[in-house]
UniProtKB/TrEMBL annotation:
Official protein name in the record: Cytochrome P450
Molecular functions per Gene Ontology: heme binding; iron ion binding; monooxygenase activity; oxidoreductase activity, acting on paired donors, with incorporation or reduction of molecular oxygen
Membrane topology category: Peripheral membrane protein
Residues bound to heme: 438
Keyword terms, alphabetized: Endoplasmic reticulum, Heme, Iron, Membrane, Metal-binding, Microsome, Monooxygenase, Oxidoreductase
Cofactor(s) needed: heme
Organism in which the protein naturally occurs: Aquatica leii
Length: 493
């Protein structure tokens, strides 16, 4: 009887999967043949393939076959992969109201930090975005530039000390410490100086945010994305109580101290205090903490990996590195060697180098969207139904030879003014596109430029022989970063 029950259950599971896997065929959308029980994500589990690479491979395969779009399956649940640029533009910009939800799981009740600008949708997202947008204007960036510069000099000192002890350094760790210092000082007004205090709580929490090396966390989040309503009912948390307690307490204590002692500081919390005071309906402490948290977590991870990849490519392309260094020297001389916001803003070729780094190594390798109401896909007979999840492969688009010939070549000239003006919409997406473009884009670029100035001005970086070429990506991470260390030889000029 027991064996009969087991066989019956297995047969029912197989029948269910066969029915579920017929979804895209019935819609006339091409798809890779899924397998039970993982659907199209078996390679992520058995081959330890990074999810961004998995989506890139699917994008390039279907693009080569001449398809406008494709269907995929996360376990048994269908997901939509747009290929055609016009469909991607339709989703991100033209019909944004149909796709304003990122489809990112959050649980405001049990995990308040997860309800942030990145994950919210609809009117709540619009209201929050309108409140926070003034925080990230160029004027406010000038307001925080002194703090950025302070972190830059800490990076310079740390790098000089390391290169004095040994001329081979691991730039990933150097980039992590710099990025945490920047976010700690510019968001919280806390000088955590991870170069001198490697056990800082900011570093500990920062490194854990997007770390999915734990099997339990991977399974939990896969379940939450596949069945968000059930996960919400069960109280599944994206981050956890330790994150909530740490960030809520530090925001609360900082605000209480400043209001009591009338302290004004040049950081994100100060700007949020001003916003809170200027709105009739105050933001709750949980809302404030959630926004500071996402600024910390997203800003730390993305900029540290971008700086790492930028130094890596400059270490492989010494002629480009030399050109950047010459621009640094020439530009600073125009400002009497004063390291100012205006001087950094006028380093145009450095901007091209950063943009090419973000093209080749986009920190977030794909964009997620959820269809909030039925929508017909232009140029097809397909109607995406409400609650359908969409995956847009940024890594695939950035390595599409139609848009970027010789995509593996590092070529900053792709981003000269002339070439940028020739580029089609929605073919360069390191910060997304449309109304949900990353709000901290200017800050991230300026942060990277400050680091490059202090590192390259008097030092030459070359990739050490122990560094893996080409880079292998960490498979169990939400963001794109190297699996192994990036070791470089540093010589003083």
């Amino acid at each position: 009887m027991i064996w009969f029950s087991v066989v019956l259950i297995l047969l029912l599971i197989i029948v269910y999967y066969k029915w579920a896997f017929s979804y895209w065929r019935k819609k006339g959308v091409p798809c890779v043949e899924p397998t039970i029980p993982f659907g199209n994500i078996q390679a992520l589990i058995t081959s330890q393939l990074y999810v961004g690479t998995h989506l890139k491979n699917a994008y390039l395969l279907f693009k080569q076959l001449g398809h406008k779009h494709a269907g995929m399956y996360l376990l048994s649940w269908p997901r939509y992969l747009p290929i055609d640029r016009n469909i991607i533009k339709h989703i991100l910009i033209q019909e944004f109201d149909y796709f304003n939800d990122r489809g990112f799981y959050y649980n405001e009740k049990d995990d308040p930090l997860s309800a942030n600008l990145f994950s919210l949708s609809g009117e709540r997202w619009r209201n929050l975005r309108s409140r926070l947008s003034p925080v990230f204007t160029s004027g406010k960036l000038r307001f925080m530039f002194d703090s950025l510069l302070r972190c830059g000099y800490q990076l310079q000192l740390a790098m000089e000390n390391l290169s004095y002890l040994k001329n081979t350094i691991e730039v990933r760790e150097l980039s992590i410490c710099y990025s945490i210092n920047v976010i700690g000082l510019c968001a919280f007004g806390v000088d955590c100086n991870c170069f001198e205090n490697p056990n800082s709580d900011f570093r500990k929490f920062g490194k854990k945010v997007f770390d999915y090396t734990s099997w339990f966390r991977r399974i939990k989040m896969c379940f939450a994305f596949a069945m968000p309503n059930l996960a919400l009912w069960l109280g599944v948390e994206a981050f956890g109580k330790d994150y909530t307690d740490f960030f809520t307490n530090i925001v609360q204590e900082t605000i209480d101290y400043r209001e009591k002692h009338n302290v004004v500081s040049k950081d994100l919390i100060q700007l949020l205090i001003e916003i809170k005071d200027n709105w009739k309906k105050d933001m709750s402490m949980e809302e404030l903490a959630a926004q500071v948290f996402i600024f910390f977590s997203a800003g730390f991870e993305t900029t540290s990996t971008s700086l790492t990849f930028c130094l890596y490519e400059l270490g492989l392309n010494l002629n480009i590195q030399k050109k950047v260094r010459e621009e640094i020297t020439t530009t600073l001389s125009k400002y009497q060697n004063n390291f100012t916001y205006e001087a950094v803003s006028n380093m145009k070729y450095m901007n091209q180098v950063i943009e090419e780094t973000l093209r080749k190594y986009p920190p977030v390798a794909f964009i997620g969207r959820r269809c909030v109401k039925d929508c017909k896909i232009p140029g097809t007979a397909v109607i995406l139904e409400k609650d359908m999840y969409i995956d847009i492969s940024i890594l695939g688009i950035h390595h599409d030879p139609e848009y970027y010939p010789e995509p593996e070549k590092f070529d900053p000239e792709r981003f000269s003014e002339k070439n940028k003006n020739l580029r089609n919409a929605c073919t360069y997406l390191p910060f997304g596109d449309g109304p949900r473009t990353c709000i901290g884009m200017r800050f991230a670029i300026t942060q990277l430029k400050v680091a490059l100035v202090v590192l390259l001005k008097q030092h030459q970086f070359t990739v050490h022989s122990t560094t893996t070429i080409p880079v292998v990506f960490e498979p169990y991470s939400f963001t794109l970063h190297p699996k192994t260390g990036i070791f470089m030889t540093v010589n003083k000029i």
